[in-house]
Amino acid sequence: MRRLLLAALLACSIPLPVRAEDSLDRALAQIGLTKQTARFDPGDMSNFGPTELKLPLFEALIWDPWKAPSYSEAIARHALGAAGSLHQLTWLGANRLGRSLRRGWLDDPLEGIKKTLDAQATPLDYAFIDLLTRTGHPPSEAEKAAIRKQAETIPPEVGKAAASIILETRGAEKWRRLALGDLADRYPGEGGDKGSTLPFDLERGEPPRFDTRMHEALHQVDLNFLIAGAEDLALAVDRAIASLKDFTTDKDFRLRVDTDLGAVIIKGAANDTYPESLNALLVIDCGGNDRYGQVAASSPKTPCSVLIDLAGDDTYDCRAKDAAAFGAGEMGYAFLVDCAGNDTYRGGRAGQGAGLFGVGLLLDKAGNEQYVGRQWCQGAAQVGIGILSDLGGDDRYECYQCAQGFGATLGMGALLDATGADTYVANDTDIAYPSPQTKEHNCSLAQGCGDGRRADYIDGHSLAGGVGLLVDGAGDDHYSCGLFGQGAGYWCGVGMLADLGGSDEYKGVWYTQASAAHFAVGILLDTEGHDHYLATHNMAQGAGHDFSLGFLIDGGGNDLYEAPNLSLGGGNANGIGIFWDRGGDDTYRSSGTTLGKGNPAEQPASLRNLMLCLGVFIDEGGKDTYPEALPFTKDGSIWTQPPAGQPPVGAEKGVGVDAE
């Protein structure tokens, strides 16, 4: 009888006037907390063992969850501000990895190259001679004459742009060597039948396999040196493109010079088809509807690979199953910039903006694009930076796993789309990567997902996840995924999805739409529009499990939330789940642990029962519709809820506020 009375008292609603500006404070006060006390305690969490290689962004958000709204918006707007520049994109990646590198901020790291080329009558000839000489093959007089004959056909402005990039690869190669040490020598393969060139397996199995080579390599790489080389090379490519912004041609010219570091190719206005397998240091294509098989991919033998396509509707189609392509920075730097046209990107083992012990960037400046990949693509990284940035058009992105803004250990992966009505699909129809939670759906790890290696139940060598970021600037967009996506975090990773305009649709399964598990952070920010959120299973729409934070912020509009158990401000097993809708006439359809509720850990006698578990639900403004089965949830009220199945033990708390 006492238990029934206690539940009745706790599961009640109290009509209160709540001002929008202090809704969170009033909600927390209702359960005896403040923003200073409603957070994880580092001492508590230290009882559960160490995890290596945590990133500063994770530390900032896990210890102060109330930073999530301001942090997520600031990060998203910073990302869109950087979206059009390779140099600023590398700065963005460095920031999110906690690396204080801003080369070019106070002085010009390329000033020496500029002075050298300005002093040359034929800059392209000079650059080729320098390149061949430093790779141990100084050209003979006959070879110089042959190079000069080709170079004479190239327009001077194109030749000088190419020369500046070629000379900068010398510096990038130096920084890469400092960053990787002897790793490039120890893993010199080129993929193919032998698989990855990297010291780890790209497949993400369950349970995760411990690889001694991978563990050693993680601690050997110097990210500061790696990013320094990327920033300088990115600046050189940015300046080369800026120098060609007014360049047009209807002529067909061709140059190719092969070196030990890859080919240098410059072509004119024709519709060109490039070889299926092309090891290229630099490609500049000045026009035409071109077809590329494998370009802009670095490897241990090709430290730098750059492609600039100035115009045309191009097809990037990598048919080699084991090949990386199109901005795939594996143990080096790979940049692809397409300046105009409606383009298609398809295939590759990794690419479309992937950094794997390297930095890989894909920047598409205009057009309606289609991006199709499988894994490690469309903004994905581990030990490095991988970014896909699209500045305009109505685009479609398709992947399976580890993509569309995915960050693994020491990785910052981002997908940025500035404008347009876009579609983001992490395939959940063809079940190629079944999830441990349900074999009927794929483990997506996509659309803003940070993922680490959990090893407390295997060998104890846990590795923190990285930062996964998806930012869409404007347009009515559609997002769909399986498990772990749309602002999801796992094992000390940070996943964030930010949509800054339009009426959007989100569809996911489990651990989706601002959800996180096991010491992680998942955030979804949607600033405006009439949005529809649908999740079908568990843990969604502001849900945290096992010392994790899930925080959903919706800025306004008439929204529909269809949520499963553990949602809409649901905390489970010492997790913190926060939901905050800032305005509009909203409809909520949910059941179970939802609408501001916390569940305890399933350990009756444990220290965990002394540690906070929190669920917070806030709806500000509008006339809202709540589930009939939860009559205490209504407009203009504050309510509290007991944990499911037992009286509270003092650590789990749940509160909801509807502020008219």
Verbal overview:
- This protein has 660 residues and is an alpha/beta fold.
- It folds into two domains: 18-81 and 423-660, no CATH class; 85-364, no CATH class.
- It is 22% helix and 30% strand.
- It has 13 helices and 45 strands.
- The protein has a 25-stranded mixed β-sheet that branches. An eleven-stranded parallel β-sheet has the order 5-7-11-14-17-21-25-29-33-37-41, with no helix packed on it. Strands 22-26-30 form a three-stranded parallel β-sheet, with no helix packed on it.
- A hairpin with a 5-residue loop joins strand 2 and strand 3.
- The longest helix has 25 residues, at 156-180.
Can you lay out the helices and strands and say which pair or pack?
Blueprint: H1 2-10, E1 12-15, H2 23-30, H3 42-45, H4 56-63, H5 68-82, H6 86-96, H7 111-118, H8 123-134, H9 141-151, H10 156-180, H11 183-186, H12 212-220, H13 223-243, E2 254-257, E3 263-267, E4 280-285, E5 291-292, E6 304-309, E7 315-318, E8 324-325, E9 328-330, E10 333-338, E11 344-347, E12 350-351, E13 354-364, E14 370-372, E15 375-377, E16 380-390, E17 396-399, E18 401-403, E19 406-407, E20 411-417, E21 423-426, E22 443-446, E23 449-451, E24 467-472, E25 478-480, E26 483-485, E27 488-490, E28 494-499, E29 505-508, E30 510-512, E31 515-517, E32 521-526, E33 532-535, E34 538-540, E35 543-545, E36 549-554, E37 560-562, E38 565-567, E39 570-572, E40 576-581, E41 587-589, E42 597-599, E43 613-620, E44 637-640, E45 652-659
Parallel strand pairs: 3-4, 4-6, 5-7, 6-10, 7-11, 8-12, 9-13, 10-13, 11-14, 13-16, 14-17, 15-18, 16-19, 16-20, 17-21, 19-23, 20-24, 21-25, 22-26, 23-27, 24-28, 25-29, 26-30, 27-31, 28-32, 29-33, 31-35, 32-36, 33-37, 34-38, 35-39, 36-40, 37-41, 39-42, 40-43, 43-45
Antiparallel strand pairs: 1-44, 2-3, 44-45
Helix pairs in contact: 6-13, 8-9, 8-10, 10-13
